[in-house]
Amino acid sequence: MSEIDRKAVEAAVRASLAELLQAQERAEAVPKAFEGDLMSQRARCDDGTCRPRSMPHVPVFDKSELAQLKAATPARLAQGRTGTRYLTGVYVGLRAEHAIALDAVHGEVPDDLPQKLGCISLRTRCKSRDEYLLHPDAGRRLDDESAKRLTAEGTRGADVQIICGDGLAAWALIENGPALLPALTNALTAARFKLGKPLFVKFARVGVQDEIGVALQSKCTVILVGERPGLGTGDSLSIYTAFNPRMGQDNAEKDCISNIRPLGLKPAEAARECTQLLQRTFAAGGGGVKLTQSGT
Ligand code: B12
Q1: DSSP state of 124
Q2: What is the CA radius of gyration of the chain?
Q3: Which of 276, 182, 189 is nearest to 224 (CA)?
Q4: Nearest C-alpha to atom 64 of ligand 1 is from which residue?
Q5: Which of 12, 131, 225, 232 could disulfide-link 167, Cβ–Cβ 3.0 to 4.6 Å?
Q6: Strand pairing of 220-226 and 199-202?
Q7: In what order do the strands lie in the sheet with 199-202?
Q8: pLDDT-based confidence at residue 69 (cuts at 50, 70, 90)
Q9: pTM of this prediction?
């Protein structure tokens, strides 16, 4: 090894060791600082003079790493505090995000959306949004009129029957449905799946796909449905797929693609992912656990 190479190697080794040492010191700083603090607190308690005191300020993590982590997600990480309370801006932000979630849960799809999406319009046995929220089972069955309409107008024996539902966030369908439905239809058609005429179901739970799949003898159903919102996330849509439909089919036989929204999985990506999932599902002869175990 030449003299220059040797120096370069030595410098690199020294730099790595220094980095390792710093990381170790950071990790050790936390328990040591707390240990001292707790011990002095105990000493004071023992002689009967215990009183409230503040915890030491210890840099527990690398600030630049934390900044990267925060930049990678809209989730509320390391919000800080003042005393035992949230900072005012954080508190107000949480209230606003909670309001978004409530609006999403209580919102409804406009009457003309099914027509704009080119869907046959159906509804479940729920007569109102409140009934939908209070009685999940009623959102898994079609009302009598819709069941008749489905039999009269629905496509029988399709490979894939697409269903759009408001679910627990109507906004999710309003915002993402117009992009996702055509993208999914195109991707599935290009993959040579025979599709049924799409359906819309008002006040829909995931389980309504069972009744629809059975009534139409579809090989597989796919329901695009609004997810239960998280804080500040009122526009997130999921796709649930069910192969070989049966009434009361277990979720373990189904699959889910979640977080479809502008800040998450984009509609075009979701359409591709769903098409690939269905290709694997048809090849394996089943979804969910069966698909996972098949290794397809
Ligand atoms: C609520 C919920 C549950 C509840 C459902 C109970 C209920 N009656 O609502 C409980 C706690 C039981 C649950 C369980 C599971 N869940 Co869950 N769940 C959710 C959550 C928070 C909301 C779902 C939702 O809004 N659905 C739409 C409404 C309209 O549907 P619904 O008809 O009211 O309820 C049905 C669906 O929620 C469905 N469901 C719930 N979770 C799952 C998961 C899978 C894989 C399937 C096929 C169906 C399914 O079951 C309900 C009854 O039919 C989502 C996260 C999200 N924000 O979407 C995760 C989510 C859907 N669940 C997930 C997972 C992984 C699971 C479990 C597999 C966890 C586990 N390891 O056990 C189990 C599987 C359930 C089963 N085998 O039955 C993942 C799915 C990831 C994926 N791409 O496959 C999600 C996206 C969370 C996440 N980000 O990881 N879940």
Answers
A1: B
A2: 27
A3: 182
A4: 256
A5: 225
A6: unpaired
A7: 120-123, 199-202, 160-165, 220-226, 237-243, 254-260
A8: confident
A9: 0.83
> In the structure encoding, which two tokens stand for residue 174, read together?
């309003």
Superfamily of domain 106-294: Ethanolamine ammonia-lyase light chain (EutC) (3.40.50.11240)
CB contact at 8 A, 185 and 179: no
Q: How far apart are CA 47 and CA 79, in angstroms?
A: 37
Q: Is 136 in the pocket of ligand 1 (CB under 6 A)?
A: yes
Instruction: Give distance in angstroms: CA of 157 to centre of ligand 1.
Output: 28
SS3 247: coil
**Phi and psi at residue 105, to the nearest 5°:** -65, -35
Counting atoms of ligand 1 from 1, which one is nearest the CA of 139? 32
Alpha carbon separation from 163 to 62, 123, 128, 130, 209 (Å, rounded): 47, 12, 20, 22, 7
**Element holding 90 (H helix, E strand):** helix 88-106
168 CB near ligand 1 (under 6 Å): yes
Tokens coding 292: 């996972």
- Report d(CA 43, CA 276) in Å as an integer: 64
Q: Where are the domains of the chain?
A: 1-36, 106-294
Helix (H) or strand (E) holding 160: strand 160-165
- What is the DSSP-derived secondary structure letter of residue 82? B
Q: What is the 186 CA–ligand 1 centroid distance (Å)?
A: 27
Residues composing the chain: 296
Contact indicator for 225, 166 with CB cutoff of 8 Å: yes
Q: How far does residue 228's CA lie from ligand 1's centre (Å)?
A: 9
pLDDT in tens, 83-135: 999 999 999 999 999 999 999 999 999 999 999 999 999 999 999 999 999 99
Relative to beta strand 160-165, strand 220-226 is parallel
Kindly report, residue by residue over 2-53, the tens digit of the pLDDT: 556 888 888 888 887 787 777 666 655 544 444 444 444 444 455 555 554 5
